[in-house]
Specification:
Blueprint (H helix, E strand, L loop, with lengths): L1 E2 L1 H5 L8 H12 L4 E4 L9 H4 L4 E6 L4 E4 L5 E4 L4 H11 L5 E6 L2 E5 L13 H9 L2 E3 L2 H8 L5 E5 L11 H9 L4 E4 L6 E5 L3
Parallel strand pairs: 1-2, 2-3, 7-8
Antiparallel strand pairs: 3-4, 4-5, 6-7, 6-9, 9-11, 10-11
């Protein structure tokens, strides 16, 4: 059984309801293999809530990386290389939106997008989750280039203007759709998510 997290296995507070816990326990006791399949990076999964469950693997960051759940060992990764992601991020950092960057199973955000989180039209629990569970970087480009990091996934979260239109989303979408090196999807709340092409 492959289970999504947000809006599926977890409740609106990003907690695992007892009923779902019991269902997973019942399945694994019958020999059914349970895995997680999520847009979240491995490090930002609700490990406390999932502790004690016999979960085999975690497919994370929209399929960009697969981990042995119990050990945290990454056994597969298809991420965007440094030279490809830097020009994309350079463009995105000029836009008025919040950016999530998933690198090596961890969540990073540009510090200058922190104030935008409270403008997002998302549940309060999602805002708290973003604000309290990220590494905030003053200069993400320098950090990525200096460490030659690859990007598992980038999520762009847009906020609505007074008319309800999502600021900068249309322009960003058009720019990203023309790049054959990446795959672009929307995970809800009017966001955009990019991974390496083919993921």
């Amino acid at each position: 059984i492959s289970l999504d997290l947000d809006g599926t296995l977890l409740d609106t507070e990003r907690r695992l309801p007892d009923r779902n816990r019991r269902a997973i326990q019942s399945a694994t006791q019958k020999g059914i293999e349970v895995i997680i399949s999520t847009g979240s990076p491995y490090g930002l999964m609700p490990h406390d809530d999932l502790r004690g469950l016999n979960i085999s693997y975690a497919i994370t960051a929209n399929g960009s990386a697969i981990y042995e759940y119990k050990t945290g060992k990454c056994i597969y990764e298809e991420s965007i290389d440094t030279n490809t992601i830097v020009p994309i991020l350079t463009f995105l950092l000029e836009k008025d939106m919040h950016i999530d960057m998933f690198i090596q199973g961890k969540g990073y955000c540009p510090s200058n997008t922190k104030a935008i989180v409270n403008k997002l039209n998302v549940p309060k629990a999602r805002k708290v989750y973003i604000l309290n569970n990220r590494v905030w970087l003053d200069d993400p480009i320098e950090y990525i280039e200096k460490n030659q990091l690859t990007m598992q996934k980038t999520t762009m979260n847009f906020y609505p203007d007074q008319s309800g239109e999502l600021v900068d989303r249309k322009e960003v979408k058009e720019y990203l759709e023309n790049n054959p090196m990446i795959r672009l999807v929307s995970g809800g709340w009017g966001n955009l998510e990019l991974t390496k092409s083919g993921v």
